[in-house]
């Protein structure tokens, strides 16, 4: 009896059946990871060239071999790109454009996200007569080419006294960001159980109380998605910046264009590369900090229409 008892676990282990674990280096895995590595190298190679070039002096760059790391690292191109490079009549580098971009970015992101989230909230839980038509018209606006609207907006801003100012550009970014953000917020809020809304209404909560105390705490991922989309779009914008502001208020992207396309003096590729990297640091930082929340939010905001 004791022998039978002792042999039972061994017999169970012997007779256990299941799927065999896959080999770590199977042909399928090698093909998948090999493809991913090739594509990663393809996209990282230009970044490698930019970083290496920005750390070299011009004599070393003229020797060729753009893929090689610098023999002697120098940060002078970065300093010049930030504070000394000429962008038209001014020779103060990207620093002026950076602070202009910050002044444009912060109010534009806040206003567009607040307006779009309230729109999505109202269209989901406080539907009114004609709300579907309103939403359709709003989404239709997302597909109108920006170039078609350039001149009418110039006239509108001029009549409002905002043409050539930072606040005029803030208004433009807020308006053009509303359609797609409203769609994302509406789809995300549609995944929240309606019972929560009804229970809050029974408890006496109003429009703003439900929005601030129930929806906002539950909607962090979609707010992160909206922030990333707006930060990337607004920070990288060139067209609106060059059309709706004046030279002393140009954002960083316009200043970068002026540095790279300058026809004065010698073409300094190391300064151009450093200026390009400096311009892209803010969106890259936002992506790296909140990448996981971005994936969660964009997935949740895309499952319902």
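^ structure tokens above, recovered residues below v
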């Amino acid at each position: 009896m004791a022998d039978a008892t002792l042999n039972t676990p061994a017999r169970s282990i012997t007779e256990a059946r299941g799927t065999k674990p896959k080999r770590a280096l199977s042909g399928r895995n090698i093909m998948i990871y090999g493809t991913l590595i090739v594509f990663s190298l393809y996209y990282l190679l230009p970044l490698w060239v930019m970083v290496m070039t920005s750390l070299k002096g011009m004599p070393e760059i003229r020797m060729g071999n753009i893929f090689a790391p610098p023999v002697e690292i120098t940060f002078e191109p970065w300093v010049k790109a930030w504070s000394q490079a000429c962008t038209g009549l001014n020779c103060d580098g990207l620093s002026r454009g950076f602070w202009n971009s910050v002044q444009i970015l912060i109010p534009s992101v806040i206003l567009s996200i607040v307006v779009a989230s309230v729109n999505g909230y109202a269209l989901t839980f406080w539907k009114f007569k004609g709300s579907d038509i309103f939403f359709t018209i709003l989404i239709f606006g997302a597909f109108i080419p920006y170039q078609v609207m350039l001149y009418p907006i110039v006239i509108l801003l001029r009549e409002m006294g905002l043409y050539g100012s930072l606040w005029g550009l803030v208004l433009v970014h807020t308006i053009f960001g509303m359609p797609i953000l409203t769609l994302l917020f509406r789809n995300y809020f549609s995944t929240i159980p309606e019972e929560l809304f009804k229970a809050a209404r029974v408890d006496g909560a109003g429009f703003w109380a439900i929005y601030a105390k129930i929806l906002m705490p539950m909607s962090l991922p979609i707010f992160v998605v909206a922030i990333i989309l707006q930060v990337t779009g607004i920070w990288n914008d060139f067209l609106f910046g060059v059309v709706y502001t004046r030279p002393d208020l140009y954002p960083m992207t316009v200043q970068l264009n002026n540095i790279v396309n300058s026809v004065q003096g010698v073409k300094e590729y190391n300064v151009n590369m450093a200026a390009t990297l400096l311009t892209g640091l803010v969106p890259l930082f936002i992506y790296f900090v909140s990448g996981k929340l971005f994936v969660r939010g964009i997935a949740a905001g895309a499952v319902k229409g």
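Residues 10-14 have pLDDT under 50 and may be disordered.
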